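YM 10:42: 30S ribosomal protein S9 sequence, as discussed on the call
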Amino acid sequence: MPKKIEEKKEKKEKKVKVDEFFHAVGRRKESTARIRLYPAGNGKVTVGTLTVKKGEVFINSRPAEEYFTGLASRKIYLEPFRTTNTVGRFAVTARVSGGGLNGQLGAFIHGVSRALLQIDKEKFRPILRKKGFLTRDPRMRERRKAGLAQSARAKKQSPKR
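YM 10:58: structure's back
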């Protein structure tokens, strides 16, 4: 009597991207921001354990209003969306590291502007370029020089006697 051989069927499941996103990196001073714009078709996007609704901005898993606490910075971080009339069209997540809050804000704006370019380059590029959001600000902290008094540009120290 022949033995029944059980056939093992290997199911190959194709990994389908649940949500497509536009990725960009922005930099300012010592800060780096990695931005993801999700065109949330159904209204919300789940990224890891975080659920982001359309129109919300999350930075380092915290709402942007909570991350950038100052009144001035609250107005500034949405500026690329306001100038391109895309406020509320995307769910935004960002990983920001390095530098201080002002540098991180500049890096965030630079990254968001670059991500918006991937959506519609011909339409958004002149608008964002005119506002200066696409320009990488080259100004960096000047290094401390040896022999100078505790700073980069102080007078050279010398003993009196």
